[in-house]
Amino acid sequence: VRLLVFGEQAHFAGLLVDMPQGLSCVQASQTVLMDEKPSAALRHKRESSMWLALAAVASGSAQACVSAGNTGALMAISRHLLGTCAELERPAICKPVPTATGVCWMLDLGANLEASAQQLMAFAQLGARAAQRQLGRPARVALLNIGTEADKGPATIRQAAALLAESSEFAYIGFIESGDIFSGRADVVVCDGFAGNVALKASEGAARFLFSQLREVLVGSYWARCVGFLARPFLQKLHTKFNPSHLNGALLLGLQGVVVKSHGGADVEGYVAALEVALSQVKANIT
Amino acid sequence: VRLLVFGEQAHFAGLLVDMPQGLSCVQASQTVLMDEKPSAALRHKRESSMWLALAAVASGSAQACVSAGNTGALMAISRHLLGTCAELERPAICKPVPTATGVCWMLDLGANLEASAQQLMAFAQLGARAAQRQLGRPARVALLNIGTEADKGPATIRQAAALLAESSEFAYIGFIESGDIFSGRADVVVCDGFAGNVALKASEGAARFLFSQLREVLVGSYWARCVGFLARPFLQKLHTKFNPSHLNGALLLGLQGVVVKSHGGADVEGYVAALEVALSQVKANIT
């Protein structure tokens, strides 16, 4: 693997002293800010590290781009420079979430607030291909709904179900309720960006809340503190497993190129995870 | 409090032997089955315990109805017998979820898959009134969205925000992300039934998953089992707190009467919680 690092000169100070092998720096004269409007970045930041990195993917001099920057700008610039596949106006955000048996790829997680039946079908195809390589078998794909019976939910989701059921690329397993995402029943869960974002953040919020409540219970008395001390390594293990930075690397699917969004607050381990997601997608020839 | 218990004679066997004071049995000749279509129940179960109990509320001989039966049928029959308030075609399902500082009332949780800005406003008014009595101050109401900035999310939610901001009945505090529901920042979270159902079930699923993972970590070795044994009372405490049966009693809001849905699998303590929810709503003169 060769790494190209894009950034303003000032950010390279540490790297240039002791440049690791297989790594080159590409200087940019601008940086897209975290709170910048995507439309503004698209218009005024054509010399930014983000723009140049995505342009390298577009020109073929790089096979994938990983960024921990502004998500909206990354989507807008990657759509502009790489283009999307036919059914999609914008890429779908896809992330692996931990389950009882491995991971489940959820999409869309917020790029497309609404999605037609055709778009949900496109999400299913994209998610299935992203998951398949890692699974070594056709992915089991489910549609997020508020019940599992065929007559449940909005018309769009029921229409999408009819499309997905006809696919031979993946195994469509029907509707899934959001409480069942973590069961391992599905490899890919398909939904519009609003529902996906709500489901993912609700589960992250619930996990955070439970951990904080657990911490509170384990300082309630002297004895509780003792038990808490003994239990700490086990809780730590669990906490690490569910730490978003260790499940880092959201795919922007539906682009004519591999683009991975790292969490802005990812640590080294987390950023490596995002790089590995990009690598696996390149190997899977996802585009 | 006087309790009227509606059911078929066969179900009263135990009660009739040693009838507690303040409790009377009302015999019904039918029962709405758990898997019965609401429309079928509405047409063919006019002598059922559910129908007679709701008819008692409609006639004024009871002030509230609590049922652990078929949710769809309960909604359909209560709408038919009690009627809904102006903006709503059907009642909104509203439940208290635990937060870092108390509870947060979420609605709608699945009765109305879509909701207009006006309907979201009606949900806000209903939820705020339900919460206010228990709080003793105006409720802090938030709209569920996928970002907190004013320009985020679907047009309907942004239009609803404008309506809610003008209310003097409650304190509108803006958008809330689903991960923040448990923070205690809002007393009432308003959303359409699809988003609410997805958020609630995702958080319940995540909590279930975490508990199961915790149990798994605590049987991984002899030492882990020892720590697990010591930690059990603390985990049990937490588990009890988050057990849906102890947060039992979903309100069917927007009806011309108090109707509370108990979880079908509630134990005695859970059913008492549902009865207490009904009682507090009657005292608050919610209708």
Topology:
2 copies of one chain form a homodimer.
Chain A (H helix, E strand, L loop, with lengths): L2 E5 L5 H5 L5 E5 L10 H7 L4 H11 L4 E4 L3 H12 L9 E7 L4 E5 L9 H19 L4 E5 L10 H11 L5 E6 L11 E3 L2 H25 L4 H21 L7 E4 L4 E4 L6 H16 L4
Parallel strand pairs in A: 1-2, 3-10, 5-8, 6-7, 6-8
Antiparallel strand pairs in A: 4-5, 4-9, 9-10
Helix pairs in contact in A: 2-4, 3-4, 5-6, 7-8
Can you walk through the features of this model?
Two copies of one chain form a homodimer. Chain A has 287 residues and is α/β, with parallel strands linked by helices. In chain A, the strands form two sheets. Chain A has an eight-stranded mixed sheet, with helices on both faces. Chain A has a two-stranded parallel sheet with strand order 1-2. In chain A, α2 packs across α4 and α7 packs antiparallel against α8. The longest helix of chain A has 25 residues. Chain A starts with a strand and ends with a helix.
